[in-house]
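Structure request: RagB/SusD family nutrient uptake outer membrane protein, Sphingobacterium haloxyli.
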Amino acid sequence: MSDFKLKENVMKKTIYALLVGVFALSGCEKFLEEDNRGGITNEEFYRTEAGYRSIVSSSYATLRTTFGRQAPWLLLGGTDVYQMNRGFDNRALMEYTQLFADNGDVLTFYRNCYEAIQNINVAIFYNDITEVDEVQRKTWLAELRFLRAFYHFMLIEQFGGIVINDEPTLEEPRLNLPRASLAESFDFVISEMEAALPDLENDRARVNQAAANHYLAKAYLTRGWDLEQRADFEEARQYAEAAIGGYSISIPYEELWSPSNEMNDEVLFAVQYDGESIGDVSEGNNQQSLFGPYLGGAELNHKYMTSPMIPSWSLHNFYEENDARYDATFMLTIYDQYFDYYDGNKDKNEMLIRAYYPRVWGREYTSADSLAWVQGKEHQIASNFRYYPFKYDEQEYRTNYQLDFVTPVIKKFDSPSTRQIFGTHVSVRDIVLARKAETYFLYAEASIGLNDFGTAEQYVQRVLDRPENAKGGGTLRPSQSIANASSQSEALDGLLIESAKEFAGEYLRWAELRRTGKLKELCGRYNFDIRRVGAEEAFRGADGQDKIYRPIPQAAIDINEAQVSQNPGYN
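Returned structure:
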């Protein structure tokens, strides 16, 4: 098992990692008190291969805390393709009107990133003394520098210019940490990733060169939009091409997301889990539970849906009739027990059906359609069988959205190996953070930045040409032409519709909309909750400016002795 497949005792060490600057809650002594009960010094412990390997492992383990413990509110909330759930949880991040600098989920994300950075800084600090061969030492250093840059980039995507932390807090906490400019923040991330790149290896279970190239493409692309630097789009295309590495999109979509096909050839970077890498299966991740309505309690033997984000009516409408990804993304038939879908020993023609989500494309589902569907299936239908046809009237579709089962759930992230446990964090599926289909989209987006719309559509088309994507052996085409767009804005509209379908449920959407300048526009067009309020009202802050970035947590501003400016919209 690789270091990235972490043992639970190693993972737990991250909770003792030193906090940086504005969240400096403990010193190095506390960290070593938990990590090293034998009383040896930092230098003695990290000089050994076992000691140093443990802090490298704990640096990777921070990914689980950041991406696997909370709902991805900041990564997906308040976009065009997810609507609020029945409890209106986190209305602040889903609708913006109540988003202020004291938001707890913003603070948690901010803290998690900086805790991870501090853990990594300690590992980097002791890298030069560890007694391993030079190649291994340099490889570990490159992995750590990439991870540190990755977390800084995650913060840039959400907050703009950030506090750059590139040194460990080994004694007294540092409380005077100025906020860097946006340009300085990008320069740090890009220079760190580029410095790490040559010494990374090609081990797909760890940070590797393809993943670094992918994130360099994304960093350059984001800077190109944010700072209006055309040359950055050229750099983004070069790094995207390097990350693609000649790979053709070749795995059918259903197979791509099969629970038995993790870390397949398309995956570049993932937060990895397996049943052996955690001491308690309830310490897995929550991804399978996030997207769709509640499916009832443990007595029904379905997966536990926490349901913070419901796939929107607009997302369903982006798909076209011949798009096989729709069936591969959503669980359109729920059997008597949800995970029976994955049981190859059971005949689906004989299994009872609890819920069915029929759709007739371009018109409403009728009773005649229902009677036609049920012919020959009478023996399958349980007494509590229900069907929930898709409604083309958005208001009607949403009328009952607070009910159990009412819309199909996303199935891409299902963890059938832990089906026996009904809980919120029982998935041992990897959380895929980057895959090569996205790299193709990054290349396409950079091409739009260069006004090369024809090339942009070609790269999107290479993803649409995935085997078995089109039902009946046809060809999928973009729902809205990119090549024939009359403007960058129109080309981006076409790209973003295709991205929504390809990456439904993956942790990309908010940053994608923000960097392209489409966040407010597409939320106002496609997000029912925001459209109901009005996009102008939803995004406008008390200072009259739009809330396009997330707020710097007020707790961080208060404790920082440096003068830290708040983002527009929150003053």
